Amino acid sequence: MKPFIFGSRLGYLIFDLDITAYHLRQALNFTAHIAAKDGIILFVGRGAQNTHLIERTARECEEFAHTRYWRGGLFTNAEMQYGAVTRLPDLCIFLNTLNTVLLQHAAVAECAKMCIPSVGIVDTNCNPNLVTYPVPGNDDTPCSIELYCKLFKEAILRGKKHRKMNEGKDSKSEI
Prior knowledge:
Elements: E1 5-9, E2 12-15, H1 17-36, E3 41-44, H2 51-61, E4 64-66, H3 78-82, E5 91-94, H4 106-113, E6 118-122, E7 133-136, H5 142-174
Parallel strand pairs: 3-4, 3-5, 5-6, 6-7
Antiparallel strand pairs: 1-2
Helix pairs in contact: 1-5, 2-5
């Protein structure tokens, strides 16, 4: 996380907000492109205090969420897990990349193994190496998770709106 750190004060690490803003713009832009291409987006998070917020955001975007315990092999062994050939998500948004204080979420590694792009909010105690679009920021407080949910929801809805506008133009040009 060293490239994302501005400095420290009173024992707390401080993010460089210019770097955070740059990475957040990239992540939101990529998310909007996936939504515009009619991709499947999966919100992933752990922690009981944010579960309802993450699930509500996914429902409002008409996308998917996984906020419970992650069984190993949900992506890497999907055919055996689900009993059929299953379409995996086109993007995973991790609102918390840690399962516990020290243990990385298993889905982060599975996304990397299956070449599924990922966006992840990475705090100072996280490893951003396996996340495709790491966004340095606070992933501990409900108000920060709420902000990220609003931003990603808006990006997804804008991408879907763009797709619908282009579908209307394509059908008019065929007539």
